[in-house]
Design brief:
The protein has 148 residues and is of the alpha/beta class. The chain has five helices and five strands; from the N terminus they run βαβαβαβαβα.
Length: 148
Amino acid sequence: MESNVQPVCIVMIEDDAGHARLIERNIRRAGVNNNIIPFTNGTEALTFLFGEDGSGEASSNRHLLILLDLNLPDMTGVDILQKIKSNAHTKRSPVVVLTTTDDQREIQRCYDLGCNVYITKPVNYEGFAAAIRQLGLFFTVIKVPENP
């Protein structure tokens, strides 16, 4: 059996530099050393995820974990979540929503759209670390099917 499993890459979509640093520090403290690619707006993040042509094929062989802030300068995180979960190439990527909103309807909407974990900021370190570890565990056991 070949073991060319790519490491999971963490895509962080967060426009607040202070929050971004805090999140990154928490990820490192949780013992996760994966590469983190930061974006401060939805437009650049979507270009990275879906490629210049917007098809999503750019992410077909990537193992991604997406950390998504809902309040971004150019579009809402909910829109991004919807796009990620409705694209064949990115829909299996776990999405952790990080936001200051603890509005139950908003939370429910994110889960309905397919987010895996919803974390309210300011981030509680223990809960965040546990969620990241759980998702990390998810990556170590998952076998991504090869394209036919």
